[in-house]
Amino acid sequence: MKNRIFATLLTFICAVTTLFAQVERPKLVVGLVVDQMRYDYLYRFADRYGDDGFKRLLREGFSCENTIIPYIPTYTAIGHSTIYTGSVPSIHGIAGNDWIIQATGQAMYCTQDDSVKTVGASGKVGQQSPKNLLASTITDELKLATNFQSKVIGIAIKDRGGILPAGHFADAAYWFDSKSGNWVSSTYYMQKLPDWVNKFNKLKLAEKYLKQDWNTLYPIETYKNSIQDDNEYEGKWAGEKSPTFPRKTSELMKDIGLELIKTTPQGNTFTLDFAKAAIEAEKLGNNPTGHTDFLCISLSSTDYVGHRYSLSAVEIEDTYLRLDRDIADLLNYLDKTIGKGNYTFFLTADHAASYNPRYYTDQKGNGGYLFLRQIQRELNDELTKKIWSQGLDKKGIQLSGTPQPQLDRFVKSRRTSR
Ligand SMILES: [Zn+2]
Q1: Is CB count within 10 Å lower at the N or C end of the chain?
Q2: What residue spans define the domains of the chain?
Q3: Catalytic residue among 8, 18, 74, 76
Q4: 76 assigned to active site
Q5: Ligand 1 center from residue 75 Cα (angstroms)
């Protein structure tokens, strides 16, 4: 029996070795996470996808269906951590976008790190790192395997979308600070922004994109995979009469500021512009040591658009038609700069989204809302009653005043984008 196991093991090792000898390593791996992209979007809007975007990925690549790592809740920070570690919150430690540290009762943001400073802007926007991520990422393993000679960079409008995938050993992670309009980083990675980032920031592309307004790519009456543009399931911006196209971002930005770029498809284009600048300036995929580099991109705007307009909206259909073009453009760029067949590209999502509950019930579906504040109130009342009835706190110490329910702080710290 022992001998048979050994023989089997040996055969396996030989097979793997032969495989490695025959396969050339890619010069660059590009991971593209599309925040809140549902699997069915690959097909739902496919009637007007071009040949070189999503359809090229499906045609030339593999579609890994029913590939499931089960965990809850499906939030951005957890999704990105799970994709890149292959692990689950109980092991990789990223249990939400925010959580409470039970020992102290303190609120913690997933990538919060008060020991580091902002690079590229002022304020706390850059006080972040992957220190809360307990497991190693595929990008970490690449760094270890190549004696840290591979270059790894993470890029996303959302801090957590860039930081967590790039892992602990990343050369850099960049995210967008809407206050300054800059792509920023933290002293965890560097002491100052590289020249190419400063140069890119000076282009003020977010402002330029917003000045162009958001009109639909095709005549609006041709959008057949969404409900009518003027509907009650969408959020309006202050100053908008109706939640309809054209969305006058040039006007809205005067009040909202550059934050608005996040909730437009141009936010994706803007992110990919920056990713291309990174490939060029950092010579990603052209490593002098011959090792594989890794670029982790996450597109956050799909999530912001989904939250504001919900998934039945023309805004979603238009965002994905534009994203299809952006992906085609990126692949074309990679073909030219890295070379066709020299890079590995994957696309996935950190989580999806469900239909607007009211839209769903209006269509006679069964569903509804979870009223968190009401649940919080009831839970607090119940807990307070129980704790007071015993007269002791959790550690068995006599209570001297009204306990401050930790849930209050948790709900306050929740961010609108998940
Ligand atoms: Zn997300």
Answers
A1: N
A2: 26-362, 374-413
A3: 76
A4: yes
A5: 6
